[in-house]
Structure formats: structure tokens, C-alpha cells
Amino acid sequence: MASVTTLAAVGEVGKGFIHERTSETLPCQSTGKLFCFDWAKENIGRYGTPALQHLELVGLAVLFGFTIAFTLAVLAHRRRWLRSPLLAATGVLYTIPSVAFFFLLLPLTGRGVDTAVIALTAFNLQVIYRNTIVGLSNVPSPVKEAAKGIGQTDRQILWRVELPLATREIIAGLRIATVSTVAIATLAVFAGGGGLGAPILQGGIDFKTNIIIAGGIAILMALAFDLILLTIQRLATPWERAAGG
Amino acid sequence: MTALILPWLPLGSIQGAIEFIFEAQPSNVTGGKLVGGLDQTLELALTQLEVTVFALALSLLLALPAGLYLGHKGVGELLAVGLGNAGRAIPELALIAFMAAVIGVGTVNLTIALAVLGIPPILTNAFVGIRQVDRAPVEAARGIGMTEREILFKVEVPLAIPTLMAGIRLATIAIVATATIAPLAGVLTLGDYIINENVYGENGVVAGAIVVALMALALELGLAALQRRLTSKGLKLSPA
User: Fold this and answer.
1) Cβ(B59)–Cβ(B83) under 8 Å?
2) C-alpha torsion sign, points A39, A42, A43, A48
3) Which residue from A140, A193, A220, A239 could staple onto A188, CB 3.0 to 4.6 Å apart?
4) Which pTM was predicted?
5) Which B residues in the span 51-90 are in contact with A, Cβ-Cβ below 8 Å?
6) Which residues pair with B25 in a beta bridge?
7) CA-nearest residue of chain B to A188?
8) Which A residues, 156 through 195, put their C-beta within 8 Å of a C-beta on chain B?
9) Given phi > 0 = left and psi -120 to 50 = alpha, else beta, which region is A195?
10) Which 3-state string (H, E, C) describes A212-233?
11) Which residues are B24's β-sheet partners?
């Protein structure tokens, strides 16, 4: 039901959205101040649910995006003819603006978290796919020859030699995809998917404090994801620290 | 095959949306006044294209010279690359709402807000593109007495075209996508069809999505074609 009320708010968006709000008037809203600390202190709890929804959207989209793009990349690594068509296909999905994607899906999946997650996943694929392919291609052939020489099968070479050596590049792609998805997910509210875009849309553009808090949480969330993934990359590739000094 | 796909595809709503693009229809809330149709669709599409082109031009004007200069000098890596990374974290909806709140609504202000999204990828890719150019041809150019300006524009820029253009394409996609929510900042783009469902109905929403998607793909294809024309023959011969 939450999506229905959100969309009622979306429906009001138009010329009236800028000048007047019919919903509850908040004490800080029309003061013209850039940031009301008192209001922020009292109302920060309002952002808990949108932030959790945002986390869910990003988490699911990145999880699905990684699973699909990684599988496609490993497949295309073995079957070279697949590379260009898959790059083009993920490129098309990347290029279609998310807001448009939500509503292209409307006749198929309706509104809600599902639609938002599908569009955000589609947006993710290209970066993860491309970085995985590049990472796998950059593995020096002498290393692969050596692996073959000691009797490793293709599967073993992939999992024990190529993927570990491509980890840095793969996680770099994952970082770009995750940070971009956190930012883009503010638009999920248009699809009825909630998230940190919801308070921004409901508060309107006169309510600066609200925009700064919701936008600020999104930026911090992106930063946190980036640091976590960077840490994972460091832990997963200890040899790079040893070699790079 | 078609028997499998056809019942699943919502052909009715797609057909309705396509009709909406070309032919005005009565709206639920405007008292029978006609909405949609080719005239309005073209007008909204032109506005979206216009703000996209202006915002892209502004980002190019600000970011390209800076990126080329820093790349050529080899200084400011932290700024150029850090800005690119930070730029990705900017939440689009918050940016448009915040800029509308602080600098105001309207086309000029919207253009500035959208340019904020275009600057990071252009700056970063210009810097990285120039830095990655093989040092040997640069030294050779210096050896035959080219000035620094000549080295930059006759050697480094041509060799960096693929990376430079990749940055411009990323910027364009981000700008045209975000221009869709421009109605929030008082500029009516195709997003008006999408955001104001109570005026345009579901046909209007899907119609808006179709035209926005086509516009983004057309821009991307156009820039890809431009990139192929700008890339020197020598670069195309070498394995990518």
C-alpha cells in the first residue's frame, strides 16, 4: 500500500509541486534556511525506513547484477564469439535511462520493488561484465601455460589461476556498479520502489533540510559500500600488497 | 515461438502507448482536453534534447580543457580521478532537488545542475586518456621540435580519442537520463509524461518511457559513430 500513497504524491508533481504542498506542513519546510539542525535532530528517525529500503534495492540489484554479469563474462571468456554481442546487449541496458526502464517494465511487472530491482540490475550488468572480461584477458599467458603444464584442467585454471588474478579488476567493476546503483536508486521512488528518493519527492524542493539529509545518507551509503568492497579486495588479494609494497 | 511470446507480451499497452505518441487523446483530469500526440511529444523531446545538449556543452567547456591540461602536465591526479569517483556517488534526484532549491528552477539552473553530472566523467577520462598515451611518440614529437600545444593536440589528443569519447558518452547518458526528471525543476521534458500519470494515463507513461529510451540510445549510437570517425586509422588497425 505504501507504493500507492507514494504515487499519489508523484501524481501531484507538476507545477503545483514547486509552489505548494498539500501534505503535512513541517515546521522547517518553508523557512528558507539551508539546514535546520533542530528539525534534523528530532526527525532523523524518519529516514530509517527509506534508508533500509534503499539498502535492500541496492543489495538485491548488485547481487543479481553480479551473478548474471559474472556468469556471462565467464561464458564469453571461453566462447570468444559471445563477447561483442554481450557487450552490445549490456550496453543497451546500461544506456536506457532507469526512469524510462521502470515504465517500460510497467506493462510487464507493474509497480514496486521488483520493477525497480530489475531496472537497477539491468543498469549494473555492463560495468561488471566488462571489468570481469578485461580482468580475465589480462592474466599473462605464461601463468596459464604453467598451470596447464602442472596438469590443471580448464576448470582448475579458471578458478585457481585466472579468477584470483582477475579479482582486482572484477572488484573494481563491482565498486563502480555499486556506487552508481546507490545514486540511481534514489529514482526508484518513481517506480513505487521506495528508497531515499521517497522523502525527497514527498518533501518537495522547498524543503532543503530534507533533501540534504536524504541525499547525504545516499552519499554516505555509497562511500560505505565502496570502503567495504575495497577492504574485501585487499583481503582477497594479499599477494598484491606483498608485491606492490 | 511467436505463439509462446505473444500472449505474454502486453501488446495492448504498447500499442496504446505508441498511439499516444502520435495522436492526442482526451485526459482524465483536464476535462476532456486532449493530451499527448505528435506535437506535444516533439515539443517535450526537443526540450529534453536542448537541455541535454546545453548541459553537455557546459560540462565540456569546463572539464575538457582542465582534464587535457592536467593530463598533459601530469599533475592533479588526485583531483581528476577523485572527482570522477566522487561524481558517481551523486544521487540524481537529490542533486536536481537541491539545485532547484538553492539556485532556483528553470532551464538555466537545470542546465547547471545537469552539468554537475557531466563534469566528473569528462574530466577523469580526459586526464587518464592523455596520461595513458605512450611516451615514445610524445618524446619523438618533442624531438622534432613540436611545441607543447602541438604535442597535446596533434599527438596526445588523437591517441587518447577512445578514452576521451568514452568519458563524453558516459556524461551524455547521465545527463539525458537525469533530464527526464527535469519537470521537478520546472522544465517540461518527456519526464512530464512519465511523472504526471494522472494527466497522461498509463499510455502516456509508457509512451514517455519509450521515447526517452529511444533518445538515449540514439545519442549513444551517434556518439559511437562520431568516435569511429575521430579515431585515427592507425589506432583502428592495432588490436584493441
Assistant:
1) no
2) positive
3) A193
4) 0.87
5) 85, 88-90
6) B35
7) B93
8) 176, 179-180, 182-184, 186-187, 189-190
9) left
10) HHHHHHHHHHHHHHHHHHHHHH
11) B36
